[in-house]
Write a structure and sequence with these properties.
Elements lengths: L1 H44 L6 E9 L2 E9 L9 E7 L17 H7 L6 E5 L11 H14 L2 E11 L1 H12 L6 E5 L16 E6 L8 H13 L3 E6 L7 H5 L2 H9 L9
């Protein structure tokens, strides 16, 4: 036992001498290694391999959400990016997230790799509405903002039909989370109009809509005006329910989005 203890002591002493002798050299090697990692990070990891629109799965409690995430082709983590949360219509519900690309903003992002927003497009499960999974959608939004170079002061909410109604609902549930709201041919609750008072809103609806009558948007517009909210209403005289392309192909919507920031609102 004594010989083992002596050997341990000698080994420990020798090791300490080596560390002292090479401490400066090892420090420089360590610094150099860290600089190399930083340099490689600047060159490569700041721009992920998965720009464009990709499919992912998100789990929140008992809810599983399939979603699409679009990152602009020039995405770079050295700058912060505006975010759009997009809620699709009833016909695209299900468990095949590729369906979400059939129309609307997810379709636009699929056609336009340079679309200059981060776009989050969750898929609503069959037989459910957006109000059934609102907590999961908000948790998904948080998750994406935390993992990517998102500007949390420029988060915009929009949706069409069932998604338009979902956008009204989600904004009422968490109005401080969004810098602007743009619901298409949906319905909200005029009794909650006061909740939107500090949230810029741009409503879109076709006057001849037979699926979701335009009176739902008329009522919301009137209620918001009474609260003094920043709101405008594009009421398309000759349009029915299908106004998706008309709205989402209009650059004025995205120019308006860019002007809005949480805590610093601009008039429409």
């Amino acid at each position: 036992m004594k010989s083992i203890d002596t050997w341990k002591a000698n080994f420990s002493t020798t090791l300490r001498r080596i560390i002292r002798a090479y401490r400066i050299s090892l420090s420089f090697i360590g610094i150099g290694f860290l600089l190399l990692i930083y340099d490689r990070g600047c060159q490569f990891s700041l721009t992920p391999d998965t720009t464009g629109q990709q499919a992912y799965i998100f789990q929140h409690d008992d809810t599983t959400l399939d979603y699409l995430l679009h990152l602009p082709s020039n995405y770079d983590e050295r700058r912060s990016w505006p975010v759009i949360l997009y809620l699709h219509g009833a016909s695209l519900r299900g468990s095949n997230v590729e369906k979400v690309k059939q129309y609307g903003l997810a379709a636009k992002a699929a056609r336009e790799p340079n679309f200059p927003f981060m776009l989050i497009s969750p898929q609503c499960p069959s037989e459910k509405g957006w109000h059934d999974i609102d907590d999961a959608v908000l948790a998904l939004l948080d998750d994406v903002i935390n993992r990517y170079a998102a500007d949390d002061r420029r988060v915009y909410l929009t949706g069409v039909s069932l998604g338009g109604s979902g956008a009204w609902h989600l904004a009422a549930k968490a109005p401080d989370r969004f810098a602007a709201l743009a619901p298409l041919c949906g319905y909200g609750n005029p009794q909650k109009a006061d909740v939107y008072r500090d949230l810029p809103v741009w409503i879109f609806h076709g006057a001849k809509d037979k699926l979701v009558p335009v009176r739902f948007s008329d009522d919301m517009y009137a209620a918001l005006r009474k609260t003094g909210a920043t709101v405008k209403f594009s009421r398309f005289k000759n349009a029915g329910h299908n106004i998706v392309e008309q709205v989402y192909q209009d650059p004025d919507l995205y120019d308006w989005f860019r002007k809005q920031r949480t805590g610093s609102f601009f008039p429409p």
